[in-house]
Design brief:
Distance between the termini: 78 Å
Order of helices and strands: HEHEHHEEHHHHH
Subcellular location: Mitochondrion
Structural class: alpha+beta
Organism: Alligator sinensis (Chinese alligator)
Shape: globular
Helix content: 40-55%
Strand order of the largest sheet: 1-2-4-3
EC number: 2.1.1.-
CATH superfamily of the largest domain: Vaccinia Virus protein VP39
Strand content: 5-15%
Domain Ribosomal RNA adenine methylase transferase N-terminal: 2-139
CATH class of the largest domain: Alpha Beta
CATH architecture of the largest domain: 3-Layer(aba) Sandwich
Protein name: rRNA adenine N(6)-methyltransferase
């Protein structure tokens, strides 16, 4: 019906937006240089809440790599999110809503909360209101490090969002030398370890990411370290020791 209402102007693609290759979606003549004004392309989406966060993270990684829909230049996006998620995306330093999404989006884009649509405007009616958020990629990111590295540092820092920030930084390192490495990274980044994650500015996160990158360059195995894997292995070993103890008691 949409195609018939606008013949030659609408192309309907049935597919999964998480896997759809947008680098082939638009005419080549619309491509612009990254430092130019945004191209005459605009991604607009009324996103299902279940895919909104993984999708914006995917597109932010595309912004960082300048691929996907951003091979055409600084393609703008206007997207809907659950109101609470929208507040996180635009949250400033010190705000209760400050989160991983705040840093990941704002270090790559200018992020604007355009307006809020009340839930009763939709059919079926959702239980929450909806925020309409616009993203315009920056000419230069505020943190000049690979996306995966920035995401790992930011995710770790906010892992203990109500604790001092050094607690989250600590899980970037194996337990054996966690305290030493954490202190080294905080000093190199010149960040007060007693600040809460929500109190950290973009400049703080830049310092932390730069310091972590330097440490990863010095130790090639560091970036592959995963706190959860070590924790699981620790719990597994503890369980195995407990089972072995019970078996020994049964034999007695």
């Amino acid at each position: 019906m949409l195609s018939e209402a606008a013949p030659g102007k609408v192309c309907i693609v049935h597919g999964d937006v998480l896997t759809y290759r947008m680098n082939r979606a638009f005419p080549e003549h619309l491509r612009k240089m990254w430092q130019d004004d945004p191209p005459n392309i605009h991604i607009i989406g009324n996103l299902p809440f279940s895919v909104s966060t993984p999708l914006i993270i995917k597109w932010l990684e595309n912004v960082s790599n300048r691929d996907g829909p951003f091979i055409y230049g600084r393609t703008q996006m206007t997207l809907t999110f659950q109101k609470e998620v929208g507040e996180r995306l635009i949250a400033s330093t010190g705000s209760k809503q400050r989160s991983r999404l705040s840093i990941m989006s704002q270090h790559l884009c200018t992020v604007q909360n355009c307006f809020v649509i009340p839930g009763h405007a939709f059919i079926p009616k959702p239980k929450v209101d909806v925020a309409v958020v616009r993203f315009t990629p920056l000419v230069e990111p505020k943190i000049l490090q690979p996306f995966k590295l920035v995401e790992k540092v930011v995710r770790s820092v906010f892992h203990f969002r109500r604790k001092f920030c050094w607690r989250g930084v600590g899980i970037l390192f194996p337990e054996a030398d966690r305290l030493k490495k954490t202190e080294q990274m905080m000093q190199t980044a010149d960040v007060d370890p007693t600040l809460r994650p929500t109190q950290l500015t973009m400049l703080h996160f830049k310092g932390l990411c730069d310091a972590y990158r330097k440490m990863c360059d010095e130790d090639s195995s560091l970036f592959a370290y995963n706190y959860r894997d070590e924790l699981k292995e620790k719990m597994r070993s503890k369980r195995d020791r407990h089972l072995k103890q019970l078996e020994e008691e049964d034999e007695l």
